[in-house]
Description:
Elements: H1 10-18, H2 22-35, E1 43-48, H3 53-67, E2 73-81, H4 86-98, E3 103-107, H5 110-117, H6 122-140, E4 145-147, H7 152-166, E5 175-177, E6 185-187, H8 195-205, H9 224-237, H10 243-250, E7 261-264, E8 267-270
Parallel strand pairs: 1-2, 1-4, 2-3, 4-6
Antiparallel strand pairs: 5-6, 7-8
Helix pairs in contact: 5-6, 7-9, 7-10
Amino acid sequence: MIVTEELKSLKEIEKAIIKRYRKKIWSKFIKAIKEYDLIQDNDKIAVAISGGKDSLLLAKLFQELKKNGRNNFELEFIAMDPGYHDDIRVLLEENCEYLNIPVHIYNSDIFQVADKISSDYPCYMCARMRRGSLYAKAQELGCNKLALGHHFDDVIETNLMNILCAGNFKTMMPKLKAMNFDNMEIIRPMYLIEEDSIIRWINYTGLMPLNCACMVAAKKIGSTRHKIKDLIKTLDKQGFTNVAINIFRACENVDINRILGYVEDDEKHSFLDNY
Length: 275
């Protein structure tokens, strides 16, 4: 993305989260935390920062939460360098410094490894490896939760991808217990925030965020997620009412008596089991 606004001061940026973008960002952040019970007393939360628009906002939201009355948890800000170009690494460091985010940056070779073992579809492998690395770093710092910057659009796109590409019905959960790391949990506090609102915020700040920054993905075009994103936009333009929110609500309104089957604890069940 191209940022068109002049660079704002840190004070202006922080104030905008609470004031200018209160309805579209701050209120939805608070709603997700309350509705999905994402933070408990004495939590130590590792906030994962990729340097992109979503994770920069997530970090600032948590800082504002602590400043505005809720201080029953601790924070660590972590960023992995999976093999960035030197200029990208500098941009990450400069943005975090400007935003007063005390980030722990550590190195890995995930870009290189993901491309080597899965050159045709590196993004999926990269995402899995990055998640595991972030879990390990969070655990090393004594954290019990890992906060990720996934937003509303990520959720509905995942819903459609699973239906159209994987033949199943499942969503990106607002919180999820880690399978391979004891006493660790993922939380997604930006679950209800739309991507357009995040784009408006980052444009207002005047900061240039990292995009994917992956030399491997840069060679790929037409990814499945981008196609799904375009499909949702097309349906909206063609007059389908409330496309995005209806996709989201579908995962809240599953009628267990009107489905052919479901999977629970890796065991598949059919509607015939109790017919």
